[in-house]
Fold this protein.
Amino acid sequence: MKEEHMGKPGKRKIALIGSGNIGGMLAFFAAQRELGDVVLFDIVDGMPQGKALDIGESAAIDDFDIKLTGTSNYADLIDAKIVVITAGVPRKPGMSRDDLIEINSKIMTEVAINVRTYCPDAIVIVVSNPLDAMVTLCQRITGFPANRVMGMAGVLDSSRFETFLAWELGVSVRDINAMVLGGHGDTMVPIVGTANVNGVPVMDMLEKKYGTAEKAKEVMDAIVNRVAKAGGEIVGLLKNGSAFSSPASSIIEMVEAVLHDQRRLLPVCALCRGEFNVDGYYMGVPAVIGRNGVERIVEFTLNDEEWDGLKRSYEAVKELVNSLPNDQ
């Protein structure tokens, strides 16, 4: 079943595979920004059609003019310029990202085969968890060049880091510049050394606020710990679901960078070939994102503590990826 809701047809196509909370919000954000014609896909017939209809009915209010399609037929994704994959089982309280790997590997395998068939020239953004394993599996099955398959994690984790810093320091989050690298999980590495408020080091501001370097570090350590566990904090509060608003906003930032060829420097899950001493694995690193996907990975100097953290994260990513089912 396919249901279309009219706008001006013929724009570039954005395919959203998975019409849950993230997929629905993502479709709405893409429509508001008129990034292209949106196709919402889900195996649960009726869900993508209903969400496309609901979003389409707000067009007169939100002043957008695109074509929205809801479907359960992969063929309707044909020739999409960009594909975002959110399909998969979400985390439940007490469930780690690693616990999801077996069931979501099966889902990702089916999705990737169909993306390869119907969207052979697309840029793919994977959001499904466990992220580092799922983006690896997607790239392996599609056979797409690595620059055209990336994962969304670092943009979200960095946004959380910046938000918590802004709240602590009592400044606008617009002025915070901070980045999170590494795997998308408890071993992620918030980069403290370069975190700043419009160029002013965050640690200097924390030390001035609390009076000693020791107390400043204690506060920063607590923030870093909260960033690593932020997704689980939301899962625990919601009790039946996981974060969706902030992930959708993070995805849109990446989609816009590709479709508008913005060449944004964003932390994304990209295939490393020696950068940051990571070789042959997908992991969160700073990368220039443009019309070709991952244009290049940008390395910079880390302090010893950050290097140690990134090494631990890399080992965790390798263990996770190497645990992918052999039949995938």
